[in-house]
Automatic annotation (TrEMBL), chains A, B, C, D, E, F, G, H, I, J, K, L:
Belongs to the Dps family. This is Ferritin/DPS domain-containing protein. One of its GO terms (molecular function) is ferric iron binding. SUPFAM superfamilies: Ferritin-like. InterPro entries: DPS_DNA-bd, DPS_DNA-bd_CS, Ferritin-like, Ferritin-like_SF, Ferritin_DPS_dom. Residues 18-153 form the Ferritin/DPS domain. Coiled coil: none annotated. Gene3D superfamilies: 1.20.1260.10.
Length: 156, 156, 156, 156, 156, 156, 156, 156, 156, 156, 156, 156
């Protein structure tokens, strides 16, 4: 039976692993939502939004790998399967079909806003139990808030 | 209302769009399944399998983008949302938690085998309606069958 | 006297060479038209359209080289001179002078649409006589249809 | 006491050094103004304008280095300090705070126009005294006029 | 109505825009002619000439972009359409069909010679009206004369 | 009216935005001061100091972009205009004219020392209101303290 | 016992595996023959032919890997041993010793011609049994026919 | 006498410098131990372990440079000499001679575990005295814990 | 008749050319054998062995080019044709078909051992006649012995 | 007999070719002198001067190629042989043997000063006969004057 | 029990393995000493010496890997542990604490001199037993003697 | 007075320094001769010979740096000044003016032949006194003999 000796106490580990598992689901869903709109956006700003969305995908994919491997490093099995993402994501429903460019930008403002709010809670929750994990989530939040600004500015 | 004038007849378009939507769901799920096992594999072959799985992820992500944009090019909105993937994928259930390296390899043999079988049906289905789409699916199938061999050989 | 022994029968060679010569003229003109609008576009979407057009130029230049060298490989002299292009292109007249961004996008939708229609005929015409040439034209068509979508979406 | 033996007569050196010092101040300010608007622009064209402005920054930074080192090469100490730039720049006042995208483009049209006018005077002034310096300023002017066109076209 | 405020007087602008439009047509045609012979050359020196011609194409394409955008920067719409090139180029007729390597080299010597003669006139014509444009044409001429030497030396 | 919904309370936002605006002004001025001395340094250590200063410029430019965009991400307009920098910088006066190499190194020791002291205050001030911003300032401080050491060691 | 479950029927697999094994032997021999002449060519065109041959080697090595791994992907063991190549290649005997440049070019025209003829048979043979394999052989044939043209043109 | 004015109080500096000096010794020894096993490992997993160890070496070398230069930046002389490392490292004895692959993996699990435990103490110790140093050690610990997981997983 | 004036006496040339021709045949066969096993290996260590073999192929191909061109430089025609390799190689028979990973590693240990023994004889044989050739063979031997160790260690 | 039809009159050609031949000899000698001191410099500033000199070598080699090929482009045979350089260079005698760093810097100040003075005469001489050549020499002079400043500053 | 069949006799192997083990210890210590001074050097030449020392580190690390793997290739376990290095190095004691730049250069002159003297003995000792090993040590010595010169010249 | 303590005895040093100084002069002259013909070659093979000559220049420049720095490393001042090269080179007189391609190739065959003959003497002369220097000259000779073959083959 595979057991990693965690550097954290059981209680701290529970808190941290919930933060990481939650972050993983949010980030995978963010990558899927951004790709979905990347493919379905239409309108005069098509090209700008199409490209801007791929930068969100790159950020979300990179960070989802980091948080999943961070969980593994603490001895906790990460779960990034489609069904887990479908039910656990903090991002609201993305409607199917074509989406005009203004709505596409708004959808990202909402999606990023939802994920950021949950990440800020995770920053607070992990500070005491594991500053190493907290530092990773701080870095992710900085990147997400930068993307958030860029979509807000594009709708400004 | 956004309408793309498709180069295909309605009937052909229906066949082709089903093939592309099915391929999209399979490839996104393949990327998620391969990442899931990439994070959860344990055992003496950990590093080889961990790296080999990321090559599958790269293949699956690249081709999912190609088929989604191919659908858009034909005027059909692609659907790659988590819930759509969770219910529509041709890949069986991936169990949660750690997975030893031999089981990890077997899981990929099965996942790739399932996707390949469906891709071969799509090659046949699209030949007449749209040889351009068929050519894309042929290329994808060649890559998947190469990965399939490598996991089979690793279990040989 | 320079003669290349073609792997095709005379009849097949005639069909294939017409397809290749036609594709060459269309692709060179597409590269010139896209550059013309790249230089003359004005309006709020100037930068997006300006950059998007250069991607069409890159595609068209690369594929024109491929089809010309494919003709040569079959023993048929390709003709890509300005006068040949001016009279033989399948793309309609491009008006002179500045063009606003919406009209620029529409012009590309039309130009790409015209070339794609002829390419699809060439796919059908070359299937039996030379599947190698057909495969090249299928690849070109896939790229053109992707560009076509992107300009349609930008006007959507 | 550090003295560089200049290849120019005193009179010519005075003319040329004024041209270079003036160009230095204009180019540093251009880089600061472009960054200021790069950060403060909002509106549907946010991303295009944001990126386009960074290209101006790159141009202005590179050429400011060239003219400062050209002054040094002629034995004249260049002055690129903030206070010197604040009082000596040929660019008008940039208002503080957020700026919508159309106003951002107009601000660059004005800023580039102001700098270009002064650069053209420097081309005339340096022709006789130092064709080497003139050639540098000609190159800078060509780049600025290209940026100027792109912002004008974006407001066209 | 889109109008760029040109830094030149009307008279000077007329002279400069004719030079740039002429240069544009010559350079586009040079790129087409060099590609035409690149595809049609035969003989023992095939590979050398084939490669050398592509370097001319790269030069001609790069400089045609520069002169077209220079015209735009001065507020003059450039015209690089196939029909315009077919009737306005300074390069003589390129015969159709295969061309042996010595004739290919001679054709380039002639084509480059014709374009260079016209470029030298443009250097003289633009000196007073716009030294910025002149500097661009001087750079182009230097490159063309280097290519001219290499083809002359190859026939030496 | 463009308003970004900040993730911070008004009070925290005020504290954090002052820290960011102060850091922005300091970093821009540091980049200008380092360039000023980069151009004006003389003496046997010219080349070493000249190159070392450009590394400070690169650091300062990169971080000034980060803090300005961090302010924007929190909904606060950053101000990096020359006049703002000229009056608000924490770096003392840089004398005009040539500067010998030892004095150049000392000037950087002083400039970096002044900025570091203010950055350490900002680390303390932002810890509670926004750990994301604090983390950014910590990273900047680490880089500045490394440069500080290198100039101190060069005067040791 | 290692067995790969092939996606093809036994009959189809037999046809396809013969095509792939034959292609493998031809391509390895082509790489050896091209290297042999690369080392032994003499005459005024030495450098051109020497370099051109290495491009054939690169093509042949790359494609030999592709067809061998395609066979493996279908569950068929590829055989690329020297003795197998020596007896099974479709290329005629290459004489030992120095070879003058015209003869070197002719030898490649012959070798490429022989391989192309067999590849075209394989395109026909694999169309029904396995379009994935056929697509691979079509791509190889396109490359070989391009090389064939270049050597024919060099002897033209 | 060379003295760097530290931004820290004497007491804080003492705490931080002990943490940095300890980290330096641990990281240098980790790089030496990982290289030692990189050269001496034998067994079926030789290649995987051999490569994985070089990634540890790269991490350890990079971070040892960072902590040594951080100490210098605070005015404290770092000591990374062989004898200092030999007596001060937190890693237990590495036996001489060949080591089979499972033992090699276990040795790294132990070595990384020992260093991580000490790093976590340093995170706690430096939090108050110098958050800049703490942030550096947090980053190092994250990397070491990721390597730790990978070796544990490989023995799982 | 092509004759290169060799810098060696006839007797020395004979010795050296035999060494080089023998090395050429061994190295080409090594590249073919390594590829053969690269394609046919199966078992848990598939991926490691598959990749390790391609590094042998790269080494063998690079050095075979060096020794063939060294022979040519001395005026001796190298012979690297398939039939020559098939009969002259110092490597024993490679069985056809799939090979499990341990046997694959053993096969390389044997093949490299056989080639190394012959290379060491060539080092001795060429020392007096041509130290330039000897130096080349020493370098090759160092590389082969490093590969030899790595496969031995993998079977250790 | 090889004759290039020059675009210049005979008189102009004579003036221009003297300028180019003179520049060629000066630049080759500059590259040899800079290398000579690069190898022979000693003293505390060894590394800085050693590296700075190699940048002069790179500049001088690049520009010598440009002027030689410019002469060829005008139909004039360039002469860059050692004996021609030894007698025709404008640079004074470089003493043999080791040279301390201050003397090395002074030697470059003198060498660059001598070449620059002659280049400025060539700028004046070529202005009327050939502005294309003049532009090349202006660019070279700008580079040399930048190097000149850097060595003067290093001795300041 | 892991045994590599060495290509050398027992007696020769003993000589060669002592040379390699000695070289390994010297090179690891050289890398540690150079890093130690890289961090501790102070004085006007700080930056030059700091950078020059990192080049020694790169050389020493690269060659230590080569000699360790050479020992392994001959079947001899290399020992590069800290304690082994601390007692076996041929380099004298490096004093702790800051070191001024002249002393830093002298320390490297001494350290390199000591290692070179031992390397030259190893060249002599390995000539007969193993010319492959000798060739490796000759290459290392050439690099060390080049570094030695550069530090001597910097103190000249 | 700058003195490097040479690792060689005075007698050996004299022999080795003569070899290195002679090699330096030959290699610099080879670079100048190859450039001279690179600029002056005419004829159908112009492009091939022109490019091939630049590869000789690159080889000769790189190796001249190596031998000069090797001399410095042994404490011997290298002399690479134009006058020294003009009188000391082992290459015969290169005639001025244009040279047809066959003569150009022959000139290189002769020049390389002359340098190689002297290099082989230096290999013999340095073997005992300094195997490190000998190894450098062996490497140079291998490169020169490869170039020699290529020019002989081109005249074959």
């Amino acid at each position: 039976m595979y057991v990693v000796k965690s550097p954290l106490s059981d209680e701290n580990l529970k808190t941290v692993s919930e933060a990481l598992q939650g972050a993983l689901v949010d980030l995978i869903d963010l990558s899927l939502v951004a790709k979905q709109i990347h493919w379905n956006v239409v309108g005069p700003r098509f090209r700008s939004v199409h490209l801007q969305l791929d930068e969100v995908v790159t950020t979300a994919r990179g960070h989802s790998d980091t948080v999943a491997e961070r969980a593994a490093a603490l001895g906790v099995s990460p779960d990034g399967r489609a069904a887990t993402v479908a039910v656990g994501s903090g991002i609201g429903v993305t409607p199917e079909g074509w989406v005009d460019d203004a709505a596409a930008v708004s959808a990202l403002v909402d999606a990023l806003g939802a994920v950021i709010a949950r990440m800020r809670e995770r920053i607070a929750a992990t500070e005491e139990p594991d500053p190493v994990t907290q530092d990773i989530i701080i870095t992710i939040t900085a990147d997400l808030e930068k993307h958030h600004w860029m979509f807000q500015a594009a709708n400004g």
